Amino acid sequence: MITIKKYPNRRLYDTSQSKYINLDHIKTLINARTDFEIVDSKTAEVITKSILMQIISESETNQAQSLLTDKLLQQLIRFYDSDMQPYVRQYLEQSLVQFIEQQDKVQTVVKSMVDTSPMTIFSKMMESNLQAWNPNNPKK
């Protein structure tokens, strides 16, 4: 797990790479599914959630990329301090995990289909034929 320290000057320091980073680098870690935690350099308190919320907040300012509609946010707020809060949290987390797993499976199937499509096979055959007829081909 990577530890990232947040200093009072609001700078983030990746201890695994010994360099300062920005929020875009944290997004890269997230997309790469790299485990990390962000700690306050003075108190050693884990502040990962607040930094992640900052990333979401900045992403949500762009309406075209927004995932959280006003209606969805209102419904989420209703669950805070209710008996259902732990269940909603668990449901949302499990739903997103399932969604991502399904998305990965679909991407794998689509990639497999593209790799084995008639056009791809024909293209590979053409490349092979061109290489065979190339006078500079060392395999001759």
Your description of this structure?
By secondary structure, this protein is α+β, with helices and mostly antiparallel strands. It has two domains: 1-67, no CATH class; 69-135, no CATH class. It is 56% helix and 11% strand. It is built from five helices and four strands; from the N terminus they run E-E-E-H-E-H-H-H-H. The protein has helices at 23-31, 48-60, 70-79, 85-115, 118-133; strands at residues 2-6, 12-14, 19-21, 36-40. A four-stranded mixed beta sheet has the order 3-2-1-4. The longest helix has 31 residues, at 85-115. The chain starts with a strand and ends in a 7-residue tail after the last helix. The model has no long low-confidence stretch (mean pLDDT 88).
Strand order of the largest sheet: 3-2-1-4
> Helical region count?
5
Low-pLDDT residue intervals, each spanning 5 or more residues: none
- The number of distinct β-strands equals 4
How far is the first residue's CA from the last residue's CA?
Answer: 51 Å
Number of self-contained structural domains: 2
Helix content: 55-70%
- Tell me about the largest β-sheet: 4 strands, mixed
Q: pLDDT average, as an integer?
A: 88
Q: From the alpha-carbon coordinates, what is the Rg to the nearest angstrom?
A: 24 Å
Order of helices and strands: EEEHEHHHH
Structural class: alpha+beta
